[in-house]
4-hydroxybenzoyl-CoA thioesterase
Amino acid sequence: MFKNERQVQIEWGDCDPADIVFYPRYFAFFDASTGALFEAMGYTLRQIRDELKAVGFPMVDTRSQFFTPSKYGDKVIIKSEITEVGRASFGVRHQLFNEKGLAVECTEKRVWACLNAEGVLKAQPIPDDIKAKMLSHD
Protein backbone atom coordinates (compact mmCIF):
# COMPACT_ATOMS: atom_id res chain seq x y z
CA MET A 1 0.00 0.00 0.00
CA PHE A 2 1.14 3.58 -0.63
CA LYS A 3 3.32 5.25 2.03
CA ASN A 4 4.69 8.72 2.71
CA GLU A 5 6.84 10.36 5.36
CA ARG A 6 7.24 13.95 6.45
CA GLN A 7 9.05 15.90 9.14
CA VAL A 8 7.28 18.38 11.43
CA GLN A 9 8.84 20.73 13.95
CA ILE A 10 6.77 21.19 17.10
CA GLU A 11 5.96 24.89 17.49
CA TRP A 12 5.22 26.89 20.64
CA GLY A 13 1.53 27.14 19.73
CA ASP A 14 1.26 23.33 19.52
CA CYS A 15 2.01 22.97 23.23
CA ASP A 16 0.03 23.22 26.44
CA PRO A 17 1.27 24.84 29.69
CA ALA A 18 3.16 21.63 30.54
CA ASP A 19 5.31 22.25 27.41
CA ILE A 20 4.02 19.12 25.66
CA VAL A 21 1.92 18.86 22.51
CA PHE A 22 -1.75 19.47 23.28
CA TYR A 23 -3.42 16.29 22.03
CA PRO A 24 -5.83 17.88 19.45
CA ARG A 25 -2.78 19.23 17.62
CA TYR A 26 -1.79 15.66 16.76
CA PHE A 27 -5.05 15.27 14.86
CA ALA A 28 -4.22 18.41 12.87
CA PHE A 29 -0.76 16.95 12.12
CA PHE A 30 -2.34 13.69 10.96
CA ASP A 31 -4.98 15.42 8.83
CA ALA A 32 -2.21 17.38 7.09
CA SER A 33 -0.28 14.12 6.71
CA THR A 34 -3.23 12.53 4.89
CA GLY A 35 -3.18 15.51 2.52
CA ALA A 36 0.58 15.04 2.08
CA LEU A 37 0.00 11.35 1.36
CA PHE A 38 -2.36 12.25 -1.50
CA GLU A 39 0.08 14.87 -2.80
CA ALA A 40 2.82 12.23 -2.80
CA MET A 41 0.47 10.06 -4.90
CA GLY A 42 0.20 13.00 -7.34
CA TYR A 43 -3.19 14.40 -6.31
CA THR A 44 -3.59 17.77 -4.60
CA LEU A 45 -6.83 18.63 -2.85
CA ARG A 46 -7.32 21.38 -5.44
CA GLN A 47 -7.16 18.79 -8.25
CA ILE A 48 -9.50 16.49 -6.36
CA ARG A 49 -12.00 19.31 -5.98
CA ASP A 50 -11.65 21.04 -9.35
CA GLU A 51 -10.84 18.22 -11.76
CA LEU A 52 -12.48 15.22 -10.10
CA LYS A 53 -15.42 17.22 -8.67
CA ALA A 54 -15.05 15.56 -5.27
CA VAL A 55 -15.32 17.43 -1.99
CA GLY A 56 -12.48 15.38 -0.54
CA PHE A 57 -12.20 12.55 1.95
CA PRO A 58 -13.99 13.31 5.22
CA MET A 59 -13.18 11.38 8.37
CA VAL A 60 -15.72 8.85 9.63
CA ASP A 61 -13.60 7.25 12.37
CA THR A 62 -10.31 8.04 14.08
CA ARG A 63 -8.44 6.48 16.98
CA SER A 64 -5.13 7.30 18.61
CA GLN A 65 -2.79 5.88 21.19
CA PHE A 66 -0.30 8.14 22.96
CA PHE A 67 2.93 6.54 24.13
CA THR A 68 5.36 9.35 24.89
CA PRO A 69 5.00 13.15 24.77
CA SER A 70 6.58 15.48 22.24
CA LYS A 71 7.72 18.96 23.26
CA TYR A 72 8.33 22.40 21.86
CA GLY A 73 11.26 22.35 19.45
CA ASP A 74 11.14 18.61 18.77
CA LYS A 75 11.54 17.54 15.17
CA VAL A 76 9.23 14.60 14.64
CA ILE A 77 8.75 12.22 11.74
CA ILE A 78 5.24 11.23 10.69
CA LYS A 79 4.99 8.04 8.65
CA SER A 80 1.65 7.61 6.92
CA GLU A 81 0.33 4.71 4.89
CA ILE A 82 -2.84 3.50 3.28
CA THR A 83 -3.94 0.39 5.18
CA GLU A 84 -7.10 -0.63 3.34
CA VAL A 85 -9.04 0.39 0.27
CA GLY A 86 -12.73 -0.30 -0.20
CA ARG A 87 -15.27 0.80 -2.78
CA ALA A 88 -15.77 4.28 -1.30
CA SER A 89 -13.68 4.25 1.87
CA PHE A 90 -10.06 3.81 2.83
CA GLY A 91 -7.94 3.49 5.95
CA VAL A 92 -4.80 5.38 6.90
CA ARG A 93 -2.30 4.74 9.68
CA HIS A 94 -0.06 7.51 10.97
CA GLN A 95 2.90 6.89 13.25
CA LEU A 96 4.62 9.89 14.83
CA PHE A 97 8.19 9.32 16.01
CA ASN A 98 10.23 11.59 18.26
CA GLU A 99 13.70 11.03 19.69
CA LYS A 100 12.27 8.42 22.10
CA GLY A 101 10.71 6.33 19.32
CA LEU A 102 7.04 5.83 18.53
CA ALA A 103 5.17 8.61 20.33
CA VAL A 104 1.67 8.47 18.82
CA GLU A 105 -0.16 6.11 16.51
CA CYS A 106 -3.41 7.07 14.81
CA THR A 107 -5.77 5.20 12.51
CA GLU A 108 -8.33 6.90 10.30
CA LYS A 109 -11.21 5.72 8.18
CA ARG A 110 -12.20 8.17 5.46
CA VAL A 111 -14.70 8.21 2.62
CA TRP A 112 -14.43 9.59 -0.89
CA ALA A 113 -17.19 12.22 -0.94
CA CYS A 114 -18.99 14.26 -3.57
CA LEU A 115 -22.06 16.48 -3.61
CA ASN A 116 -25.05 14.87 -5.29
CA ALA A 117 -27.51 16.73 -7.54
CA GLU A 118 -29.35 18.05 -4.45
CA GLY A 119 -26.13 19.36 -2.94
CA VAL A 120 -25.95 16.67 -0.26
CA LEU A 121 -22.57 15.20 0.66
CA LYS A 122 -22.49 11.49 -0.25
CA ALA A 123 -19.87 8.78 -0.38
CA GLN A 124 -18.92 7.85 -3.95
CA PRO A 125 -16.68 5.12 -5.39
CA ILE A 126 -13.00 6.01 -5.28
CA PRO A 127 -11.84 6.69 -8.87
CA ASP A 128 -9.99 3.70 -10.35
CA ASP A 129 -6.71 5.58 -10.98
CA ILE A 130 -6.59 6.83 -7.38
CA LYS A 131 -7.50 3.39 -6.03
CA ALA A 132 -4.68 1.85 -8.10
CA LYS A 133 -2.20 4.38 -6.71
CA MET A 134 -3.39 3.74 -3.13
CA LEU A 135 -2.77 0.03 -3.64
CA SER A 136 0.70 0.56 -5.12
CA HIS A 137 3.88 0.02 -3.14
CA ASP A 138 5.65 3.27 -4.15
